[in-house]
Design a protein that fits this description.
The complex is a heterodimer of chains A (about 210) and B (about 190). With about 210 residues, chain A is an alpha+beta fold. Helices cover about 25% and strands about 25% of the residues of chain A. Chain A has a domain at about 100-195: Jelly Rolls (Sandwich). In chain A, strands 1-2-3-9-4-7 form a six-stranded antiparallel β-sheet. Chain A has a three-stranded antiparallel β-sheet with strand order 6-5-8, with no helix packed on it. In chain A, strand 5 (about 155-160) and strand 6 (about 160-165) form a beta hairpin. Chain B is mainly α and about 190 residues long. The radius of gyration of chain B is 18 Å and the shape is globular. The two termini of chain B are about 15 Å apart. The chains are: A alpha+beta (about 210), B mainly alpha (about 190). At the A-B interface, helix 1, helix 2, helix 3, helix 4 and helix 5 of A face helix 2, helix 3, helix 4, helix 5 and helix 6 of B.
Chain lengths: ~210, ~190
Amino acid sequence: MSITHHPGEELLLSYALGASSEPVALLVATHLSVCSACRESVKDMEAAGGAMLTTVEPAPMSDSALRSVWSRLDEKPLQRPVVAGSPSDVPPPLRAYIGDEFAKARWIPVAPGLAHLPLVTRGGARARLIRARPGAGVAVHTHRGEEWTMVLTGSYHDETGRYLPGDVQTTTPMVLHQPEADEGPVCINLAVTDAPLIFQGLLPKIVGKVFGF
Amino acid sequence: MERPAVEAVHLNALVVAVGRARDRAAFKELFDHFAPRVKGYLMRLGAGGAVAEDLAQEAMLTLWRKAELFDPEKASASTWIFTIARNIRIDAIRRERRPEIDANDPTFLPEAERQADEKMDWAKAEDRLKLALADLPREQAQIIELSFLADKPHSAIAAELGLPLGTVKSRIRLAMARLRTALGDGT
C-alpha cells in the first residue's frame, strides 16, 4: 500500500499521549493498522510520554497500597475471549464497531449511491463510515472544526487531488470541498469531524452545511 | 547523564525479571518507583487521590500480569508503563474505548519498519529525550505538556491559548523534529 497522505503529527501526538477523543483515536488506529511509518512515529511519541512520566511529581502511595497489590498478585486475571481472526476486509480497530464485513454493516441510505453509518460520537467529535458508489459525491460542504477522511476501499477525488486506500485527507475549517467517488470498487471512507467549542464572537459562524456532512 | 541511563537500564531489567521469573523483589522495586509517578500523572490529569491510587494499583497489577510481553528492544520500562497508565485512564476515567492496533498482527507490512529498530537502545534514548524535552522552546514545550497532562487535543489547545490551529500544528511539528533528532542521535 503506497500511502501519500498521512494524518498530521498533531493527531498522532494526541493519540500517543492519550489526549484524543475516541472518534479521532479510531481514525488514527485505523490508519496505523496499514501504515508502518506512522506506527514508528507513534512509538517515538510514546517514548516521549514515557520520558515525561519520569519527570511527573510523584504522589506518595498509601502505606497499605503495596500490601494490597501484593495480595492480588496470584489472582487469575479475567481472560478476554480470543476472537478467532476470520477473513475480513475491515481493518481490526473498526471491527469492534461494525463487525467483520462492510457488506453486513447497517448502512443508512442518504442519497442515491450514498450511505453512511455513524460509529461513535464524543463531545464535539464524531466518526462515521461513508460509502459512495462510483460517481456519487457529497455536496459542497464545509466544517466548523477539522475533518479527516481515510479511504478504506476504492478511491475518491476532489479539488485537491485523488485519495487512495490508507490515505487520510485533512480538511481544515472553512475549506469548501466536493469529494466524488472514482470509477472502480465502491469507495468506503472513515470520516471523523472534530468541532471544538467555538466561543461566540471569536470566529464567524459558518453556514451552508449540507446533509450534516 | 550516565547515572540516569543506568537507572533506565536497571528498570528495564526489573521488568524483564518479573516477566521471566515472577521476581517479587523486582516487582517491589518497580512498584516503589512507578506507582507514585503513575498516581501523580493521574492526579495531574484531574483524578482524585483515591481514584488515582486505585488506578495506579491497577497499572502495577497489569505490569505484573503482562510483564512477559515487555520487550526492552521496543520500549523502555517507563514508556511501557506510561502506555498502560494511559489506557487505564481512558478506560476508567474517560470511559471510552481505546482503539488500538495489535503490534503482533502478522498482516502488518514489515518492510518500512525502522531498520535499526533491533539495535535501538530505548533506555539510553530516554535520557536523550528528557534532555531534548527540557530544551524545547517554551512555546513548543507548552503544547506538548498540554497534550500530556491536560487531556487536550490540538484543537482544544488552540482554542484555549487563542492560537490559530496552524500555529499549534507547526509547533508540534517543530517539537517532534527535535525529539526525533534526539532519538536518532547515536548511542
